[in-house]
Amino acid sequence: MAVRRLIPLAVACVLAAAAATPAQARGTDEPYCATHKCIALTFDDGPGPYVQTLLKTLSEYKAKATFFVIGSEVKKHPKLTQLIAKSGHEIGNHSWDGTYLTSLKYADINKKIGDTQRLIQKTTGKAPKLFRAPGGLRNGGVEEITAKLGLIQVPGTTATKDYIKDYRHVDFLTNRALDVAGEGEVVLMHETVKETVESMPEVLQMLTAEGYSFVTVSTLLEGQELTPGQVYPDQPGVETTAVH
C-alpha cells in the first residue's frame, strides 16, 4: 500500500488551489508552476464512454487535465469532445487511431496526424498545440510533420501502466498513480479504462492533501522556449516511450 494512502481523509478533503490558466490570461508573465506544486494528468484514446464521469470528478477537485484524443473517436463523439474543451481542459492530438506511426509511410503519417488536427479544430474551434504518438513511438517523419503543424510532442514522463490488462484493478491503479506522482510530472493514463476513471477520486483527494495543483501540460510548460516537433518535457529514456 502506498504511503500516501495513510493520510487522514479529513485532511485529504481540502481542495487544491483554483486550476491554472495560461499566464497571459492571468495578467502575469510569471509561470503558474514557478510558485505552485504542479502535476499534469493526461488521458489518452478518447473521447470514450467514461469521460463524463471523469470530467465530473476533475471538476469536484478544480483539476484541469490534458486529453490526447483519437481522430476516429472525435468523429464519432463530437459533443463529448466539445464538452471536454468547454470544461476548460486541454485537448491534444493522438493521431487518427492506434496505429503505430513508425510502421507507416510518410504520407500516411501526415494524413493521420493532419486529419486529426483539422477535425479537432473544426469540432472545438481550436487547433491543438500538443501531440502524443500512439505507443509513444515516433521517428523523423513524425518529428517533421508535427513541426510543420506547430505541434510539440508530449509522450509523458511516467505512466500508471493502465494499458496492461492485468493491472486494471482500481486499488492497483490508485496506488500506482500515487507512487509515480511528483512535481513537474506528466502522468500518462487512459480515459477509456474504467478502473482508471474509478481510481481518480482517491488519487485527486490524496494529491490535493499534498498540495498539488492539477494543470494542463501547456500550463506546466509555461516559461519554456518550445520548438515544434520536439519532445517536452525532455526526459530521455522514460518508460512511456515503450509500446503500449
UniProtKB/TrEMBL annotation:
CDD domains: CE4_NodB_like_6s_7s
Domain NodB homology positions: 37-215
GO biological process terms held by the UniProt record: carbohydrate metabolic process
Lineage: superkingdom: Bacteria
Signal peptide region: 1-25
Gene Ontology molecular-function annotations: hydrolase activity, acting on carbon-nitrogen (but not peptide) bonds; metal ion binding
Protein name: Peptidoglycan/xylan/chitin deacetylase, PgdA/CDA1 family
Alphabetized UniProt keyword annotations: Hydrolase, Metal-binding, Signal
GO CC annotations, alphabetized: membrane
Originating species: Microbispora rosea
Pfam families found in the cross-reference section: Polysacc_deac_1
InterPro entries: Glyco_hydro/deAcase_b/a-brl, NODB_dom, Polysacc_deacetylase_ArnD
KW Hydrolase (keyword) present: yes
UniProt entry tagged with the keyword Cell wall biogenesis/degradation: no
